Amino acid sequence: MRILPTKVRPKSDAFRAAHDGMKAAVEKLEAALAAARAGGGEKYVARHVEKGKLLPRERIELLLDPQSYFLELLPLVGHGIRGVGTGGGVIGGIGVVEGVEVLVTANESTEKGGAVNEYGLQKSLRLAEIADQNHLPTISLTESAGADLPNQSKIFVPGGATFKNLTRRSKEGLPTICCVFGNATAGGAYVPGMSDYVIMVDQGAKVFLAGPPLVKMATGEETDDESLGGAAMHARVSGVCDYLAADEREAIRLARQVVAHLNWRKPGGPQSAAVEAPLYDPDELLGVASMDLKAAFDQREVIARVVDGSRFAEFKKDFGATLVCGWAHVHGYLVGFLANNGILFSESAEKGAQFIQLCNQRGIPLVFLQNITGFMVGRKYEEGGIIKHGAKLINAVSNSAVPLFTVMTGASYGAGNYGMAGRAFDPRFLFTWPNHRIAVMGGKELAGVLDIIKREAAGRRGEAVDEAGLATMKAMITAQIERESDAWFSTSRGWDDGIIDPRQTRDVLGVALSAAHNRPVERSVAWGVFRH
Q1: CB of 229 within 8 A of CB of 208?
Q2: pLDDT tens digits for range 127-144
Q3: Which one, of 419, 423, 422, 370, lies nearest residue 396 by Cα?
Q4: Contacting residues for 521 by C-beta, under 8 A, at least 6 apart
């Protein structure tokens, strides 16, 4: 593999402008993440601590191995959405416990008592999907008031998948360890009930299908929390509790003990290379891409600051040049890169499809770096078969058996999103940079299309165009698309697994690759029909 050269000039005006813009966006990201870490706010955090309880993130910190990593996932779900706290009331991510990579989830119990809203549910289902796809044990740190009842219509029906997923993962040999620190009521009681290992904190955990008020209303029976669903009762009478912990710290110690006894082993993975840092400063990634998506950049500059030793073996460099393909190592893992260097033409789509086939033949995971406005349009390109060539790329992505990883480094418009492994194509992980935008097309382009349609329709009717009304409509459409296509809108709705600082791209991919190798990498030479 050759060392990639660089044309980045850190002292140039264009670089400094891009760097400053991206740095400001990263500062905005850090502020939003701080809001997520703040939980329900100072008042409710203080109230939680006054009860002698550890904060949810303190529980996670004590659970993880010292000096290990924690890759938080979907941290900004619900951000900016009225009535939904940043993070959706759930904390989740991949960390290391007793040397084992695990998925950790925790209710943000300082936010409405850990009640589950529709965005938190959506996030939880995605976290469960990640555990399943990457063959990870799960540790659930539970303290929840149950469903957010005023929004039950948005939660009840899809929420059943929570319990289905728990039992299916158990069947597949993916254990769930549930630590109950506080309430786990109503449907939430089935989380410990369906987990493989259950730890409850004495005088803290309360697990029951119906609390004392509902029991009295339904049956006339009078009882109290402890006798109805306390940890001691479940440990000594019902058997729902496997380990009775004297306090929260002991519960966390017991969770670590259970992981140590799982006898968990990663399957034999690929031969990894010696890990080398990139030759170029990752800080330069802030100036490589711009917040202005009209400013083109070479994805090789991104690759050079992400891969080991900045070494890259490029495939078909002079054919289909708008799609960069090639092999490199990331934290020792061999991967194939597909990265947009412009719009997708027939040649680049064909090259990408062939490259995906080659990587599947050898069991090499794929990393997609998206910055794409779509496939080329126009009479010449339609006659040249852009549809069938684009379909080959989408076919290859759809039927790829190796793990896919996607990073949105810029635009993601139209069918380009599909051809480059967007969310609908089940990448193991999908992350975005702060400059990311996603939509069918840009706001101005969509408004322009509508302008043409309205004018042609008026002409067919022999009517004059309402210029003022048309201008107002175009302005409204443009503003709507601009608002709904930015990274903050998409991440708040769970369309990605998180916005990341571009400088962290290498390490984020490293954790994701490591997690994915908890199950063998499949190979495939089977594809749908390729139209010729």
Answers
A1: yes
A2: 999 999 999 999 999 998
A3: 419
A4: 269, 270, 363, 364, 365, 402, 403
